[in-house]
Design goal:
It contains 25 helices and 26 strands. A hairpin with a 2-residue loop joins β7 and β8.
Length: 843
């Protein structure tokens, strides 16, 4: 330990004597380590971290695979009655719970706001092993009677921010979705639900479903999948064993369900497909998350990119260490000559490189916090406040320490081995060739430059592909003009409005907004487009002559008569809806199942199902059973527009008039105006407050902002790959400049002799540039081979461009070659201006 301490003191003293070298090396490492730490911090939270619950590795998520006969709300969903069947009849779980995420309106102290809520079973907290910070958690007895448990629990972060951490909130009443609920407790700190990217703020018992989701109960509906079911595996039971145990029971449930009246008109083939459904048991240790699926590939990709930057930084510092070692070769030679072991000297040099890496890691950790805060601005909206943090924790600190130590060894070991093999005789005689390390060090440094050029080209090609892909998406557009178009969402049903009152409210709101000076059109829609969400339904298209009826699953939207005019979507045939299109048809056996008499379809729908003839006057019906009634008439065909996102293909779409719907709740309002966005925002907020001051308004933004938000992942990849690509190129060019300056220093006398014998400046210039071009050419060829081999891995992240796009490869190669030649030209010019007499005296 005393020897190591002496090595450390000597290393600090040595670094202090070379401040320029130290600053450049530490900054290079800090950039590489900081970028890697920042990306790993996000990757750890999104992809690696487990739920903050007791023994999360024991949790399993159930999901149904196979035919869906009914409705579906969300991924990994099953019906509530099916969850109850599994909870009562299984031998593989020590406990089960279910949950359903739903936006809720919370009123307290005269203030109403929209929050992220969860309907949860009474077993939710006991099975997870999550306790209460204040009060108590829900228990199974709190979830027995439908509508009979008006209770609520708060998450710790929401309790702190909304209620000021006041413990007396327990026992008080809050108004949630127009219902009085009693707060029974606050969950322990750090627990915000089981879905990453959705920071739950309030929990409500599952049996309050009908009260929390007005107009939609589904607690007894086996044909509606909507709850996520989790189980805690018993000790020693694996997921595969659980699946094998549950499948026979599930098959029995399917045989019972297929006898239901709903299947009476189902085709025999559909019944057989339904009976082949299987239950799957997935790992539940990380909960479930659409955000994780969305970010998995981008985060691993960015981790690879920052890894490349760190390798280039390591190569750069290794080059600096080799150059610095030239001034210490005599010192090392003397040590070796008087008996010092080579291993002892290598240890000393490694301590110096590790000291540099520790300084670089410390600065990199600070940089990573700033980079993470910047990266969070690229995260999708559903990331939610508190879902992902930019503050480093012990895991991130451990990662930074590990990568710093590994980096120090990587860039320090090779120079240490090279520096401890001098030619003792020539070095002790102060001969330049010996002091500067001869040819081996030169070849080593040049090989590092080739590696830097190769990695830089690979990163530049990736950046070019991502930039062009993003530009393709931007140029594509949604299919309608977005200028001066504003959208926002409200849901009056969450504050007590029934469907009749909601329809009156929406008509009045549209009229009030249309009266604002500068507003040209106002339209409403049930589904907000370009947000990644969709609603679809199975329909039957009427038979045509000898042609049998066809089945389809178009994307659905309920709209008002002003929707298409507001968006600027032309009607290609037929007519738009009117406010007289309120008539409905009783559909099926259910008394509450009514459908509109008229619908509108998009052009893609019309071309697919009515090729060569008009879609107007044709009929469709909800359902896919053989005897489905097709009584809804197509009265219009509109131009195709994007629905879920710019990246997704235009789907077949069908629109119905929302005023004919039996249940009207959340709607998105679109307004096109000549006003500035900020003026429009304030005017919209004022009008909503005038109509109902208790109604929360959310997601108010322009369509351009909406499109920009929908491209956040693409922007994240394109922006960071560009920044890191240019950073890598800068570091590589510094390395190339250093190598050429080092080479010229070794050949100063040779250059002097050449010039004394009559060589011209252009000859010396070409002598140096030829070496530069050789290094760059080798790096470029290796980089192109690597790019062609590796870029196919990112094809899924590209749009409208192939991974082997010739233009991108050519531009990246040309750009790197120009910059590299410029970096080599500076030392070449200096070499061509060497004074022959001074060079001949150089030693």
């Amino acid at each position: 330990m005393g020897s190591l301490w002496n090595d450390l003191r000597f290393a600090l003293r040595t670094l202090r004597k070379s401040p320029v070298f130290t600053v450049v090396a530490v900054l290079s490492l800090a950039l590489g380590i900081g970028a890697n730490t920042a990306i790993f911090s996000l990757l750890d939270q999104v992809l690696l971290r487990l739920l903050p619950v007791n023994h999360p590795e024991q949790l399993a998520l159930l999901t149904i695979r196979g035919m869906e006969y009914g409705n579906n709300s969300g991924g990994n969903a099953m019906s509530y009655p099916l969850y109850g069947d599994f909870a009562k009849s299984n031998s593989v779980f020590s406990g089960m719970f279910c949950r359903f995420p739903y936006n809720m309106s919370v009123s307290f102290g005269g203030r109403t706001e929209r929050v992220d809520g969860e309907l949860v079973s009474g077993t939710y907290f006991p099975v997870l092993g999550v306790g209460a910070a204040v009060g108590r958690t829900f228990m199974p007895d709190d979830d027995q009677t439908p509508g009979g448990h008006p209770l609520a629990m708060l998450t710790y972060s929401y309790w702190k921010t909304r209620f000021g951490g006041d413990p007396s909130i327990v026992g008080k009443t809050v108004i949630v979705n127009a219902r009085n609920l009693t707060v029974v407790g606050v969950a322990r700190p750090g627990f915000n639900g089981v879905e990453l990217g959705r920071t739950t703020q309030i929990f409500v018992p599952m049996t309050m479903k009908a009260q929390m989701t007005p107009g939609w109960d589904a607690l007894d509906d086996r044909r509606w999948r909507w709850v996520n079911a989790f189980g805690r595996l018993k000790p020693g039971v694996t997921a595969q064993q659980a699946k094998a145990s549950l499948q026979p029971f599930y098959h029995g449930v399917l045989e019972m369900e297929v006898k239901d009246a709903v299947f009476r008109n189902a085709a025999p083939a559909d019944r057989q497909r339904f009976l082949k459904n299987i239950i799957d048991v997935l790992p539940g240790s990380q909960g479930r998350s659409n955000l994780r699926r969305q970010l998995t590939t981008p985060l691993w990709l960015l981790m690879a990119i920052t890894g490349g930057v760190l390798l280039i930084a390591c190569a750069n510092v290794a080059n600096l260490l080799v150059a610095k070692a030239t001034s210490r070769q005599k010192e090392i030679a003397i040590r070796l000559a008087i008996g010092a072991g080579r291993g002892r000297i290598i240890r000393q040099l490694l301590v110096e490189s590790l000291t540099l890496s520790v300084f670089g890691g410390a600065l990199g950790l600070l940089l990573s916090v700033w980079i993470d805060r910047l990266l969070l601005t690229f995260m999708p909206n559903q990331a939610g406040e508190g879902a992902i943090s930019s503050n480093p924790d012990l895991r991130i600190l451990a990662f930074t320490i590990a990568i710093s130590v590994l980096t120090g060894i990587v860039f320090g070991l090779a120079p240490a081995l090279q520096s401890t093999k001098p030619e003792l005789a020539s070095t002790l005689k102060d001969q330049v060739a010996g002091i500067l390390g001869g040819g081996s060090q030169g070849r080593f440094r040049k090989s590092l430059v080739v590696v830097q050029v190769t990695l830089s080209l690979l990163l530049l090609v990736g950046a070019g592909l991502f930039i062009r892909s993003l530009q393709n998406l931007r140029d594509l557009g949604p299919g309608f003009p977005t200028e001066n178009l504003v959208a926002f969402t409200v849901d009056p049903s969450l504050i007590g409005y029934d469907s009749s009152k909601a329809k009156v409210f929406y008509r009045r709101l549209a009229d009030e907004l249309a009266a604002i000076p500068g507003v040209r059109n106002v339209g409403l829609a049930d589904m907000r487009i370009l947000t990644g969400n969709e609603s679809d339904s199975g329909i039957t298209i009427e038979a045509q002559g000898s042609k049998p009826a066809e089945k389809a699953h178009p994307y659905m939207n309920a709209i008002d008569p002003g929707y298409f005019a507001t968006l600027g979507v032309p009607i290609l045939a037929g007519r738009d809806f009117t406010f007289q299109d309120t008539e409905t048809i009783q559909h099926g056996a259910r008394q509450d199942m009514k459908v509109p008499r008229v619908v509108i379809v998009n052009d893609k729908f019309a071309r697919r199902f009515f090729p060569g003839r008009s879609a107007l006057g044709q009929h469709v019906g909800f359902g896919i059973a053989p005897n489905t009634r097709t009584e809804m008439e197509i009265v219009g065909v509109v131009k195709d527009i994007k629905y879920t996102s710019l990246r997704d293909e235009i789907p077949i779409q069908m629109f119905g008039p929302y005023i004919a719907g039996s249940h009207v709740a959340e709607m998105t309002i679109y307004a096109r105006s000549t006003l500035d966005a900020s003026q429009m925002f304030s005017a919209i907020r004022a009008k909503v407050r005038e109509l109902d001051a208790n109604l929360p308004l959310f997601e108010l933004r322009t369509l351009d902002q909406q499109i920009s938000a929908s491209l956040l992942i693409e922007r994240l990849i394109a922006s960071l790959s560009t920044v890191f690509g240019f950073l890598a190129t800068l570091l590589a060019m510094i390395g190339l400049y250093g190598v050429m300056a080092y080479t010229i220093a070794r050949r100063t006398r040779e250059i002097g002799i050449r010039m004394a014998l009559g060589a011209f400046q252009k000859d010396v210039l070409w002598l140096v540039m030829r070496e530069v071009l050789v290094l760059v050419a080798i790096g470029v060829v290796a980089g192109l081979c690597a790019a062609i081999g590796l870029t196919r891995l990112v094809q899924s992240q590209l749009y409208g461009i192939t991974a082997h796009d010739p233009m991108t490869l050519a531009l990246a190669t040309l750009g790197l070659a120009v910059v590299a030649c410029a970096a080599g030209y500076i030392p070449a010019i200096r070499a061509s201006r060497v004074d022959a007499m001074e060079a001949l005296r150089y030693e």
